Amino acid sequence: MADSGSEDIAVIGNTDLTPSESENNLKNTMVEKGTSLLKRMEIGVAEAEKRTGKNAVNMQETYTVYLIETRPVDAASEGTNPVPDSLWRRYSEFELLRNYLLVAYPFVVVPPLPEKRAEFVWHKLTADNMDPDFVERRRVGLENFLLRVASHPVLSNDKIFYSFLTEENGWKETVFETGFQAKADSRLKALNATFRVKNPDKRFAEMKHYGDELQSVISQLLRVRARAADRLYGVYKVHGNYGRVFSEWSAIEKEMGDGLQSAGHHMDAYAASVDDILEEEEHYADQLKEYLFYADAVRAVCRKHELTQFELEMAAQDLTSKKQQREELATGTVRTFSLKGMTSKLFGQETPEQREAKLKMLETQIEEGEELVKERNAECDEYVKSAWVDIERFKEQKDHDLREALISYAIMQISMCKKGIQVWNNAKECFSKM
C-alpha cells in the first residue's frame, strides 16, 4: 500500500516488552513529542465487507473485514487532501492487537473492543453477528477503539499499533515476534496472587471493587433499556393500529371521513418512525456497553498490581528465610522446627567445612535476594505510579463520556415524548374539524 506522509509520524518501538524500559522510553517520547498519534494522523474504519474463504483447518467460512483508512493531518490542513492509505482487517486481528497491548502495557486501562456477538438487545434486533445492522454498529465500535488507542498518551506511540494501521502484510508475524503470548499472566497465577497477597494497596482494592460494581450497574441499566425499547416498540406499533382503524372508519363516514383519515395518516407516520428512533437508542446503548467492557480493563490493571505486590512479598519472604538460615547455621541454634534440624539431631552435626560452604552459599543467595527485593520494590513503585496516572485519566474520561451520553439519552427521550404529544395534538385538530 501507499506510504505517503508516514515519514513525518514519529513512533517508538516496544518489541522487547520489558516493562520498566518500555514505560520509560514511552514517557520520554511523550515529553519530547507532546502529542498523540491522533493529532498527527486521521484514522477511520470506512466500511465493512463480507467475504468467504478457508480457515486454518481448511474449512469454508464466511467472515467480515473492515477497511481502515489513514491520512496525515498535515495533508488536510495544507489543502492537498490526498487519497487515504487503506487496508483491510478482520475482527480477530483487532483482538490480537488488543491482547498485545494488554501484555505490553499492563499499567494502562486498555480501551475495549465492541462486542463480538450482540448482547442486551431488544426483541426486534437479531443476535446474528453477520446481520448488516450489527456489523455496521461493530464497524463504528472498531473505529472508536482505534481512536481511543490513537489518542492515548502512551498506547498511541507504540510501533506495533502504528504498523497495524499502515502495514497490510506481515503485521501478525511482527506481533508474534514480540513474544507477548509467553509473557501473558495466567488466570491461575493472577487468582493465586489475589488470595495470597498480604498487604494489598487499598486504592487498587477499592478500584477493583468499583470495576465490579460499575459492570453490575451498567448491565442492569442495559437490561432495563432493552425492556423499555420493547415497550416503546409496542406503543409505536399500536399507533399503527390506530391509523388502520381510523382509515377503515373514514371509509364509512361522510361528514367525519376526512378528519378520521387525516388522523390515521398522523398515526401511521408516528408508527413508521419507530425504527429510526430505536436505531438511535442502540447508539446510546453502545456507548454504555463500551464502559461495561471498560470495567474489566480496570480490573485487569488492579489484578496486575496484586501480582506485582505478591511477587514482591514472595521475594521478601524468601530473603527473610535465607537470613534466618544463615543465623541458625552461624550460631548452631534452630529457632523453628524444620526437617533439616531434626536430621542434624538424629545423624549428627555438619563438619565445620560443610557449615562454612553452606554459609558462603547462603551469603551469595542473600545478596541475590536483596537485589531481587530491591528490583521488585522498584517495579512495584513504578507500576503504582504509572497505573494510577492512567486510572485517573480513565476516570476523567469516563465521567465526561457517560455524562454526555446520559444527557443525550435524556434529550432523545424528551424529544420522543414531545413527538407523541404532537401526534395527538394533530389528531385533536383533525377531530375538531369533523
What are the defining features of this structure?
8% strand; three-stranded antiparallel sheet; mainly alpha; 3 strands; disordered N terminus
- Morphology: elongated
Total beta strand runs: 3
Proportion of residues in helical segments: 55-70%
What gap, in angstroms, lies between the N and C termini? 68 Å
Structural class: mainly alpha
Rg is: 31 Å
Beta-strand portion reads 5-15%
What's the helix count? Answer: 13
Q: Point out poorly predicted stretches.
A: 1-16, 18-34
Strand order of the largest sheet: 1-2-3
Mean pLDDT: 83
Fold and architecture overview:
There is one protein chain. This protein has 434 residues and is mainly α. It is built from 13 helices and 3 strands, in the order αββαβααααααααααα. It has helices at residues 19-33, 73-77, 91-104, 132-151, 159-166, 171-177, 180-183, 187-196, 202-250, 257-272, 274-331, 339-347, 352-432, and strands at 41-54, 60-72, 85-90. A 3-stranded antiparallel sheet has the order 1-2-3. Helix 8 packs across helix 11 (274-331) and helix 10 (257-272) runs antiparallel to helix 13. The protein is elongated and about 120 Å long. The relative contact order is 0.10. The model is unreliable at 1-16 and 18-34 (pLDDT under 50).
